[in-house]
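Why this split exists: single-chain examples teach little about how molecules sit against one another. For that reason, every record in the complexes split bundles all components of an assembly together and asks for one structure covering all of them. Below is a record exactly as it appears in the raw files.
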Amino acid sequence: MRGFLLVLIWALSPGITLAHEDHHLTVYTYGSFASEWGPGPRIQAAFEATCECELELVAVGGTDDILKRLASEGEDSPADVVVGINADRAAIAEAAQIFAPHRLLQGRYDMPLGWHHALFVPIDWGYVSFIYDKPRTPSPPSSFRDLAASEATILIQDPRSSAAGLALLLWVKAAYGDESEEIWRDLADNIVEVTEGWSASYGQFLEGGADMVLSYTTSPAYHVLVEGDRSKAAAQFDEGHYMQIELAGVLTTSNSTDLAHDFVEFLMSDQVQALLPESNWMYPARMPEGGIPEEFGNLISPSRALFLNPSTAESLREEALREWLAAINP
Amino acid sequence: MAGRDQSLTVSGVLAASLILILTFGTLAAVGWRAEGAGQLGPADFAAIRFTLWQSFLSATISTILAVPVARALARRRFPGRGLVITLLGAPFILPVIVAIFGLLAIFGRTGVLSEISRAFGGEALNIYGLHGVVLAHVFFNIPLATRLILQGWLAIPAERFRLAASLGFRGRDIARQLEWPMLREVLPGAWLVIFLICLTSFAVALTLGGGPRATTVELAIYQAFRFDFDLGKAALLALIQFGIGGTAALFALRIALPQTAGGGFDRTVERWDARGRLSRWTDVLAIGLAMIFLLSPLTAVFAEGLRGIPDLGAPVFRAAVASVLVALASTALALLLSLSLAHLIVAMGHRRGGPLLEALGYLSIAASPLVVGTGLFILIFPFVSPDYLALPVTALVNATMSLPFVLRSLVPALREVESRYGTLSESLGLGGWRRFRIVTLPRLRRPLGFAAGLTAALSMGDLGVIALFAGPEQATLPLQLYRLMGAYRMEEAAAAALLLLALSVALFWIFDRGGRADADA
Amino acid sequence: MLTLESLSLTQGDFTLTADLSVEAGARVAIVGPSGGGKTTFLSLIGGFLQPDRGCILWQGRDISRLSPGDRPISMLFQDNNLFPHLTAAQNVGLGLKPSLKLSPEEQDRVDDALTRVGLAGLGGRKPAQLSGGQQGRVALARVLLRAKPLVLLDEPFAALGPALKVEMLDLVKELVESSGATLLMITHDPRDAERIAQQTILVNDGAVSAPVDTATLLRDPPDALRDYLG
């Protein structure tokens, strides 16, 4: 009977909450970051080796899921640090008033654009782009207008559920402003499917579901370094490419504030920054001493880095969503 | 009612109130919340259009394709016919998400048909979008339509076929004079039942709808909820969904709906016109094609599932345990509710309240689980974090959703027990709970077992309200399977699908079997 | 002439055998205890059952392989002789064309047939709006129109009252007399047999005997018939 009860508790509990103490740090992040093939476990091992503490990584989901979870937990939240907040949703995260100012010196990042924010620290970043298969698509489109005029089919992610999907929306907005609705109307017939998450559309692309898939310029590096496959490439767009930045922040409700800030600082260390490219497949926010794998040098480098600061992104988001929904539902 | 039945009456009234709260109460909550909600955008109108259009197509195609299959089954007797008819009942306990996994393995981009097409230099198939949704609905509803139409065929008195034969009718004349009038009577009801089912089929739209362009109203509720956390919008959409479902249900009440539960399928009708080679081959073709269409996805689930078993991870097993517990809880709840309600319905007889109460039990057929879920969320959200209640709420909603099926099997059985043994029991002074325990319950074992099996299987396979409520770490097995498919971990998904299928069938079998064991005639 | 040549059919432990012939134009009653095989016998001739052995000849032609509708036969059953969803006129019209696509001239013939059985003006009614006797008349009107040389009756009027039944049998007699058709009718009332059938066939325990003169048979019934008549 007791065994049954234990199974019951194990199955029904939405994550067992452990005691708060200064030797325990709980980090909320998204699934692939915490997964065994993501950077999470290695960061955890490295940090635990220096901090004399226990680090718990909890895979909660995207920025919205994390915020929702934190809102429902309120003061009782076991979380100390959040890793993986999407810069495009940083304004919402800030408005929740649950993040404490970080303790790092500003301005020491190696990104195409500067980043200044009191609460959030960038840990890595990437350009969104369309990935194609070189043998199958010998001449990929070179701009949104080019893509819209072509017969090329694309798989994208829903901007309401996916960070890359939202980045695409803001990419078009940043590049075309008031003309973006027209761009979307022209693109509508190129879109094969809109998936909820990135994995579903990327998986479908690899199976031949479309000519191109919305992902990051760094994705081809994965295929080369892990699979030795040089057939995938990112299509370079003349408008420039939108930057998606991933942030970390410390919660005001943390009971281990110092440890939490130490962890954020640790995230910016060479040790962690050096392992991000080959585990999270993004560019590090700060270039580590030993540099990053050579293969990243072979990737396309956009002519222009497009980015909307969090408050602009937030103010444009709803309108952009409405335009997008209307355009793809003729 | 006499005083001794007081406790049964009280429990009946309690059950009825709970059902009222779950249906109209949640709807009221939704309505209250929807007030002041934003305007509907073009995407929402597109969702309404898509919902109606895909249901229309699905219902039409399913009923049309079912006609030749039903005709073949009505006029042929062959070894395995009983098995074919049993299989036609299987979609009731087949989890939607498992079937979709199977359909993807056959009709998907890397599925069998795409491979064949590519081998001949053709294009791969794309299952996502309108045609995928319709395909899945047709897969699920051809069996139902076939059973409904087959019943119509078998309801034509054999003597009429004899008379037709004596008058020298050819196949075409029989079709015009006998079969077409029957079909004209049966098809609208069958069509409407399927239309109604497709209106509220969330899991199919969630998995095969191709993003915003193939979004149903229910999917839009889910998106407003999960993506935007826009309760007002979700509530407004929920009202629209209830409006559509309610209107269809009202029509359904006016057209005599066909019954599926009844047996009597083992009969065939002697047909003197169908001895020709051509008609024999068309029948073989109809049954053969239908079986291939229905069995190949399931075969794929088996084949790929067995291969994927080593990939199964702890989250899948955890989800499986949660699912079984939810299924058991919702079964217990559904039986409790419907037994109480059935007692009250039978006790009230044909007085004004009786039929009204019975209608109440069937109400949830029109209510979409997503609507009930939205309402519950609005009611619960201010007090408790929904994360913690995801599984209990799922059990509750699943129990409500299976009430129509359970009542349909219990009420007639209970009526019979009362009319046959009521006087005897009364003369022996058996009343109230004692009568329930000694007389009623043992006599109801079979329908109870069947209803429990059906409820457990339905709940086991449900992917509806759990998708609204579950936190990222929580899942029932169907939700976990959906997540694995979304993450493109197909090997593990295959094994999870097989596990889910096995658990659903096992639950149904155990309950149904339990009802039959030692049940005296 | 209708000839049944060493006909036999076995169903479970019941075997029916017949070896006899009936003159063309004769009116023959079929009598015998229930369960003796009267309906089976008629169904064999009608083509609803296939014999294990033997054959059925009509005017020298083997008809035992033909489907029911292709045989030169009109048959009325105990019940269900009309389609309830079709009007009386449509039910009669089926005797001309199962497709019911009737030319104006064929419509007239339907009306004539209805008039001859005393149903003028009632063609638009459905069976449920007609009395039992009227329903029988509709079925007879169809027999008339089909004009098949063999008419088989499996007690179609058994459910009617005695007076009405006599009326219907007289109508049957009149119709077959004028068309010259051969009539085989099952009955359990010897008075019916006497009234319209010159000859009678006795069917008892699967054995079908050859037709004999009705009056003679009833005057000196064999044991089996005597037991049955009581």
